[in-house]
Amino acid sequence: MTRNLDLSIGANWQLIYSISIPPTVLSTTRNKIDYARITPIYPGVILDKSILAITVGTTIPAGRLWFFAGTLLRFANSSFGKTYIEDPKPLFLNGFNLVVSDVLSNNYQLEVRVPKWFLSCNLSVYQYEGDDRTLAEKDLDIIKSAVVPSS
Predict the structure, then answer these.
(1) pTM for the structure as a whole
(2) Which CATH number is 13-147's, of 2.60.120, 3.30.70, 3.30.750, 1.20.120?
(3) Phi and psi of 150, rounded to 5°?
């Protein structure tokens, strides 16, 4: 179904999670620095909206050209434990990744996995708070308000 979203209005977005993970040095031997890998990130927020914007950033070494920023997974806790709801979605670096889903009918959580070559990571998750009804739902509300008198 068609939606008419106002994505460009800042008031329609709410920052729900933000983290900055600095590089962690494990050891230094003969001018070689070993860094710790960044483990999967679990924002720890239970979501119920189907529209998110996610941005992932890192420091890109000189002479490198990176676009891939990892994967996003959505999961819910069920009687079977952690249950993944959708296929993993790729995330792209230094831009907003719009994530829209219609398959969710209950609360869910996020898991973000950044590539193993990331030494640091900046992650922000925004939830769309604007009107996300379909055009048919909007039309139905107009008809209801015309037929049913308000009390």
Answers:
(1) 0.81
(2) 2.60.120
(3) -80, 145
